[in-house]
Request: fold
Amino acid sequence: MVKTSVAVGIDIGGTNTVFGFVDRNGKIHGEDSLKTTDYEEVEVFVAALYEKILVTKEKIGAGIEVVGYGIGAPMGNINKGTIEHAADLKWKGIIPLAGLFNKYTTLPVIVTNDANAAAVGEMIYGGAKGMKNFVVITLGTGLGSGFVIDGKLVYGHDGFAGEIGHTAIRPGPSNRDCGCGRKGCLETYVSATGLKRSLLKIMADSNAPSELRKYSFNELDAKVIHDAAVRGDYIAKRAFTHTGRMLGFKLADVVAHTNPEAIFLFGGLALAKDLIFEPAQEYMEENLLSIYKDKVKLLASELSTHNAAVLGASSLIWSNKEL
Reply:
């Protein structure tokens, strides 16, 4: 029996971890997920994840052969196979993720930043096919970014290039606390959690009616806010406009640094479409240097939200020269 070679692409997010069995053509033969937040200890998380991967593989059947594990994670370091000081994960410090996986497998295990993995997925399977210069911004629990310049993913000196989510949009001691320990980081304003924080601030400062006033803090999330905005809720729409403007302002800096052909927005918040894209496009153009105006496309990812990072992570294995 001829088996199909697959790489296991794993996307570790602040809330959920998803994985899939992906062949060279980008076909996902099976996938599943588990809650990242359910595990206080990373060793227990890795054991549970590996067990679930094995169970899912058994359900698929004997027709596939795993050749390696590609992992996208916040603050993933491709040079060392580590997660280092990730603000959006419970596990703090330097986590030897590849080493923990190697307790269960002798196959290649490659770790990189989750946004870098999404950028690779966009380049190979999505809207960035044929592009040599582009940026992917991931908008989830936090904000990640992956930069492709001259056809190559930029990792930098020690693997951490492109962390614009942790550049300051409003520096100073009075601004929002970030999980990284600093204040005023972009992701505290532009992310699912940032959207919620902005909504609560706008709501506190306004007497305008809003259906969202009936929700408790824990009941509010990006989807609830989005649905209210679609129904025309004034406060919800203002929160999205504020979020989009903050993003657009920072994207003008990104363009100046990288001169991309396009910027792709990926993740749950990007599904808000015009609610986020219109203010982001407007403020990016307004703040661009004249030589860049009307040249950079702001696009939605062409990969479905639930599998782009998985595809990108799996491609780390296919690009490994040893295979």
Q: What stands out?
A: The mean pLDDT is 92.
